[in-house]
Structures are given as C-alpha cells and as structure tokens.
Fold these 2 entries.
Entry 1:
Amino acid sequence: MPTAYEKEREANMARNRALLEELQLDKGGATFLGMPEKPAPVPPFKKRRPVVHQKNKKRKTPPPSDSGAESETPPSRVRKVATEVEGGLRRSSRNAGKTVNYEAEIAHGLPKIVTKKVGVDHDTEPNRRSGKRAHDPKTFGSIPGIAVGTWWETREDCSNDAIHAPWVAGISGSPEGAYSVALSGGYEDDIDLGEAFTFTGSGGRDLKGTKNAPKNLRTAPQSADQSFENPFNKALKISSETKKPVRVIRGFKLKSPFAPVEGYRYDGLYTVEKAWMERGLNPKGFLVCKFAFKRVPGQKPLVLGDAEGAEAEDEEDAFSDADDTPSEVQDTEDVSGSTN
DNA sequence: GGGCCCGCAGGG
DNA sequence: CCCTGCGGGCCC
C-alpha cells in the first residue's frame, strides 16, 4: 500500500526520467559507445568496487626530477589519465598517500608550482597547496590539457587539475553560474542516462549536530528543506539560464552504469537545462533542488562504467580530441572552450 | 563494513 | 576568522 508520499515520489521519478529521455533525444545528444539508434535502455548497474585503501599512508617517493631541467617540467604524478592502463599500471596503483609531505617533495627538487595565476602570490605563499594548480578552476568550460575521460584516484587529485575544485562539495560555482559538479551518489534518486542526468542541490543536511552532541560531519542525511538561496544551488540555477557549460565528473560511488568503478572521471561539459524543486527521497520528504543536465554535443563519447575493453582500445586517442591540448601544462593562459 | 573524526578548499 | 561540503583515513 503506497503512501501518498511514495506515489508522489514515483510520479516525480517518472516525470524526471521522461524529461531526461527527451533531452537525450535532442539533436546532437546521445553518443556513448555502443549506444543503439533508439532511446537508451539503461544497462543494469555494474557492481561497484570500492576504492581499496592502502594501510600504509606513506606516499611513494617521487622519482628524482631530471636534474636541473625542472623549470618547466611538471611533476608527472599530477594527473592520472585513462592511458595509464598501459604497462600494467592500471587503476590498481593504490598508493597515493594522503599525508603529503611537501617539504620532502621540495627537497627532492620537484617543482610544486607549475604556473602562476589563480590569485595566489606564490612568492609570499610558496607552500600554498593550490599553488600546484596549473589552471584556474573558476572558469567556465574545459580546462586546457585535461581531456574528457581523464581519471583520478581522489577528489584531491581532480581538484589539483582544476576540473572540480572542492574536495568534498558537489558543486563549484559563483554568482556567475556553476563551474563544475561531481556526481558521486549522494542522492539515491538522481537518474543518470549518460547524456542527460538529474542532479540534486546541496544544503539541508545536519552537519553540526546539536550543541550537546556536535557532529562535525562533512556529509549527512537530509534533515531540512533545500532552497535556491543556497549559493551553490543558486549558481546552478543561474547556469540553467545562461546555458554556460558545466564540467562534470562522475565518481565511483554513483549508482549508475556510467560511474567509474574506482576514483573519479571527467566526463566533459554539460548544460543545465532545467531547475526545479520537489520532495526528495528522504524519510520526511524534505524539499530538494533538482537540476536536469544535458551533455554538450560533439565531445568524446561517454563510456559505460570503466568499459575495460573500450577504454583500452581508446587509449591511443586519449588526447586526440580537437579541443584537447596535448601537453600537460600550458604556458599561455589560453582557455579554449571557455565562455567566460 | 560502519562509525567517527579530521584536513582542506572555497566563500562570506 | 567563520561556516559549509556527494572525502577519505582510521579504528573498531
């Protein structure tokens, strides 16, 4: 006997799915590997394999840099890309420690600051971690040198590549609109059809607990209504009006056939097609902000999950996209794809 | 595997 | 400074 709330949820989901299917059929949409001519029957979920964490927190000692020639050679570890599957490295190289000893790295002669910019004075703040960034994450559109399909083990690595700056938050934005979002399974009722998906806003979670029982959490269940007054949600709403592209990463926790099995993957640019509110999938039916995203046509096709085979076949082309810049670090401030 | 607690980036 | 936030390491 479904309750009124359950029926409402069901209706919401059906309506949202219909909306996404319509978006997918839009001209230029629908382009993931192996996609049939017609609509997309979403394949069954692949079983998610959680990241296997290494007990030993120590990071692998970085290789000694090419003595002296370090002035423009970025640390090769800054970015893990799909092409690393070659040579047996695969994705099982779970060795990126969390406790990074930057002084040790500096002692090794690795340049931690690949470029300037980003509003940081690297002369006065040489140890500032964001100084590692080669590009400003607060830009709209693609990031030079970061191909669609680029993969990272952690959100931190992704952040360093300026694709999605926050380590935890799912939305990065400003009053100008949203720069990027992370699909990481935080909301069970989000639907992911690949070329189009729904996304739930932020806020309405009880992160602090009560004064007597403080929690100090980073994520928590829904405990209040969301609203578009929330700056993150507002940014996405603005994006739905300006239609500026938003970078999208999918994480391993996302329940979707398009989610990577491990880590986080950059899946290219999407536009926010619609913003609305509805009762979310939470015990008390708190309101959440919902957004419908549609992939910008003409990008490298999505892959299903890790799509082991497809990815291996594709690795030669990992950087061959027209709007991708082959080199790791740009000297120029060229921001191709930006609609700033 | 769940609970806990923490650092951190980013914005106000 | 304060606060938030779809991480992640660690302990049990």
Entry 2:
Amino acid sequence: MDKQLIPNVSVDSVVFGFDSVHLNVLLIGRNILYKKTVQRDWKLPGDLIRWDEDLDTASKRILKELTGLQNIYMNQLKAFGSLDRLIRRPQDMSWLISIDHPERRVITIPYYSLINLSKNGQINLDLTTNAHWVHVDDVSHLPLAFDHQEILVFALETLRNELRTKPLAFELLPSKFPLSQLQKIYEVIFEVSLDKRNFRKKISNLNYIVALNEKEAGVSHRPAKLFMFSKDIYHRLKTENFDFTI
Amino acid sequence: MDKQLIPNVSVDSVVFGFDSVHLNVLLIGRNILYKKTVQRDWKLPGDLIRWDEDLDTASKRILKELTGLQNIYMNQLKAFGSLDRLIRRPQDMSWLISIDHPERRVITIPYYSLINLSKNGQINLDLTTNAHWVHVDDVSHLPLAFDHQEILVFALETLRNELRTKPLAFELLPSKFPLSQLQKIYEVIFEVSLDKRNFRKKISNLNYIVALNEKEAGVSHRPAKLFMFSKDIYHRLKTENFDFTI
DNA sequence: CCAAAAGTGTTAGGAGTACACCCATGA
DNA sequence: TCATGGGTGTACTCCTAACACTTTTGG
C-alpha cells in the first residue's frame, strides 16, 4: 500500500461524452478471476487520493492517469460512503483481496465530467488502461463494480438538473456546432422530443448563442449554419432574473 | 484519539431554521485560548465519523449529540477537503493542538438541514453544547472556524437552487401555515420582495397546497387561513413536466 | 431527381406582472 | 376607532405549444 495515499478516501469520475447521437459514459473494463473463471466487468475510473493533493487535483490526476483525458469540465457530486459499498458483490471482495487492498472502508467522492466526442476533436484515450465509451442506455445491463451503478445514476440525475439551469450543453459540443446538435443533447439527456421551430425560437432569444458566418462542410444534405456559445455574453447577462418553481 | 473514529473524515451540519421572520443557522460557540487571550468564535456542528456508521447515520448522530435535534430534513452537500482547510487561521491550529487532534488532513462531508423555529413547536436545543441560532445575514461578520464560512455559503447557494424546484419551503414551516409565511420564506431566502396577489394566484394553482378549515388564533389582526402541504398530492402530480432553461 | 436534414411563421392559450382597495380582528 | 396584516380582480404582455412546407446540398 502506497504510503502517499489516504487509505480510505477515493475519487471516481463519471465522464459523459456526447458523440452527436448518444450520450456515452467512460468505463474501465476489468477481467476478474472469480470461482475459477475469468469474468468481465466494469468500473468507473477512480482511485485513492494522496495526502498532499486537493480533491479536485486528485480527480484530475487520476482521470489523466487512467484515460489520458485533461482539461475537461468537472463537477463534484455528493460522497458515497455506505458501510457495505465495497463488498456488496462477492466478485468485488475477491478482486480487492487479489490487489491486496487493505481497507475495510473507503469513502468515495465522485465527480462528473463532460466532453465532446465528435470525429474532429479526436479524443486521446489511453487504451492501455482499457477505457471504453459505453452508451448510457446500455449501462444498466452491464455488471458494474461496487456501488458504481448507483453513482452513475446519481451523476445522470445531477447532470439533468444542472442542464436545466446552466449552460452545460456546450461542454458536450465542439466549439462550433449546428443548432440541431444542441437540440439533440436535450432530447437525448431528457429523453423527450422537442419541436424544432419552437426550440430555435427559444434559442434565438438567447444572445449568448452566437451565429457564425460558417457552415457545416461535407454533409450530404443542406449544410447547417454554425453557432458558438459566448461565455462572456452569458456572464454579462446572467446577473438578472428571479424565478422559482416550488 | 478514539479508535472508533475514522481520523480523516468528518461530517458538518448546516442547520437552517426559519423563525417566521429570519433565516437562521445553528452555530456552536467556542472559547479558544490564543495569544494568551480568550477569543470567541463559531463553528458548524460536526465531528469525525465512525468506522461502523454510514455517512447519513453519522450526520444524524453528531447533530443529535451536539444539539439534541432529531428527525429533520437533511441533504448531503459536496465534500470539502482542501489541504489547508484546518490551518488557514492560526487560532484553529492552536485549538487543534489543545484538543490533541492528531490528523494533518480531514475531509469533511457537509449536510444541510431545515427546521421550523416558530413558538409552538419549541426546539429542543441542548444548551450545554453552546449551540445558538444566528441570523444568516449576520454570519459573514462572525469569525467562523476552518472553512466553515465557505461551507455555509455553499449550503445557502444549494438551498436556493433546491428551493427553486423542490417543495423544501415546507420543511421550514410548521405543518399548518398561512400563505404569508410561505411567501416570506422565498422573500428572505432569495432576498426579493414578491407581489402578494401574484404569489397567491400562483399558489392557488398548486393543488398540493391545501386550504384547511382553520384560522390563525391569537393575532391582533384579521386571522389568516391556514394551509398545509400534501406530500401525497405532490408526488402524484410531479411525474409530469418538462422544462429547461439554459 | 432523390434523399436527407436545414430552415422558417402564425395562432391560440396560459403564465407572469403591475397595480389599489376593503376586511376582520385585538388592543 | 385604530393599527395590523389578510384577502381579492383585471388588463397587458410575453412565453409556450401545436403545426407543414420549402430550401439546399451531395450522391
């Protein structure tokens, strides 16, 4: 056991990636030996944190070590620390023994991150660590380690909540995007379908979504106008508005 | 150091209490000896957690031990674990030494709670522990231990966010309340003033806020009709609605 | 010329906002 | 009878929701 690590506090990352069609989550494949057969299962990227690093720093470091991802949007979720979280599944117990994990109790502090996966800005996934993008809809059928299924569900709920009131959709898009992509994000994440005209009317009232003098290229249909999100304008405008819903 | 305690993970509670005029927060007064004078400062109720209890359990236990409060609404916030959070103020360092606190690093998991403080349902504060209700507006002038000021600010922000979309106001009210009290909560917490007629119109559309055949008693003005919040009706209704704001 | 997605306007209903006076009670 | 907060309606504006056809490009 590395002396630099706090033995009972970890971070985990729920990295959401949007590929212009699906919302995906980044999982690490494991092959664990259990009852003399090799079983495949999945976990969230994560690890113990060090004595000499802040939580955010730890989360960034571990994500980079395990996946190569850097400089992406990141937000802390609530901690998960139930007594039995590491030992709910017998496979997990035998895995912990196999890696010589000494601790009876680990409290984990999950983060969620957002990233765009479209063809241009190729993602620099470090494949030696077995990281894979999985459609979020498929995850519920997969065996996930520990309480990672629960963490993922919580992360998705939080993403939905934050997406309602914060300009997070743009973290899932390339810097220049057509409006149909923006709409798709809301449709996929909230599992609804939205009216194109009403959506665009709504967007056109938001001055921080700026039309560019550029169009998509290389598509076999009428090319869409590209837009960008202006953080500056957004912050200048969002010092007004009161509104509540009980 | 108690062997039953995890040495580097604590919980803290931000307990908000509404007294029909102000939003208050529960703080514990400390007298610390620093540079040969006794100084008064304040901290959030909190302590290290035990190896054999879940986070929520720990939070409930510690809140009860320190204040006598039980069975109140409680919600976990994000963890605070920066490297210097215990040693930003020299007073805190000398206090930690005085209580023989061994740990260089403690990550705390804060919770916020909501409670009603009106005269009827007298609160059972255990005064031996020096717990006091302080108006939230006054807290920024008080010396708070560690990063507790920061935790409090985050808790208040979170309370505001959740109050926009969840029926939390009722946790701050007695079970039967006049509409003016409900309005006051939004006005105090969001620091706005709302139009009485418009507020009441909005409320009358919410079927889960139910008018009772009862009136206030003992007030020296026209007595107000009392209302209650129906959790049942609320949950039956809130399985609809899509709406987002970027 | 076909397939595919982009782009565009109108109408009707509901929600939000601004605003001023009378009512019921206890002291 | 006075002081105090309770209680009520209307008109205007703005946002939302429903709905179908034409345009531009590549193949």
